[in-house]
Amino acid sequence: MALVTTEAEPKMPIHLASYYHDSETGHPQPHFCGAHELVSANNERQTHRTAPCALVVEDDPDIALALQDLLEFEGFHVQCASTCRQAFASIARKSFAVVLLDLGLPDGDGTSILDKLHVSHPSLPVIVLTASNRDLGPIPAFARITKPWVRRDLCRLLHRALETVAPSVVS
Q: Is the separation of the CB atoms in 85 and 57 below 8 Å?
């Protein structure tokens, strides 16, 4: 593999293929890719393969996006569903490490999802997100958190939920 050094950076070797086309000048420009960038990119690919999957069931698009951003920042792959029907279809197609579930959905009550998951996936941790402070009675969920949530508390719950999941589901 041929290495080239530039006059501006005589000690910085670059690969010939490490050039990009500068749209402003029209000239090829070197792209320096150091060892740190390569290690970082490799770690990112490895994390991407082993990240746990989370299902967010939330009909409010702003809340769903906020949860998706938070979960992705915490290292999860995230799939969102805004209805009971979408949630059931997602659960039938894919294994999840954790579910965040809103109870008020446009096509039904989120407790129907919770009840089915309790039977079909009893070890799957479900964190119920609700805007209501009312007593919901005994619900078969890993935890319940009231909207608006405290980020630190939700993250703590997510990581505690992952500790309860079998390692094959997480990776």
A: no
Q: Report which of 103, 90, 92, 98 is spatially closest to residue 71, judged by C-alpha positions.
A: 98
Question: Token pair of 39, please?
Answer: 């290690």
CA separation for the pair 39, 53 (Å, rounded): 24
Rounded CA Rg of the chain: 23
- For 137-147, the pLDDT digits (tens) are 677 789 988 88
Distance CA 14, CA 11 (A): 10
Sort 18 into a burial class: Cβ within 10 Å, 0-12 / 13-18 / 19+: middle
Options 3.30.43.10, 3.30.70.20, 2.120.10.30, 3.40.50.2300; which CATH number does 51-165 get? Answer: 3.40.50.2300
Instruction: Note the helical H segments in the chain.
Output: 35-50, 61-73, 84-93, 110-120, 151-163, 167-170
Please say whether the dihedral angle defined by the alpha carbons of residues 101, 102, 103 and 104, taken in this order, is positive or negative. negative
The CA-to-CA distance between both ends of the chain, in Å, stands at: 36
Whether pTM > 0.85 for this model: the answer is no
C-alpha 59/C-alpha 16 separation (Å) is 50
- How many of the other CB atoms lie within 10 Å of CB of 146? 13
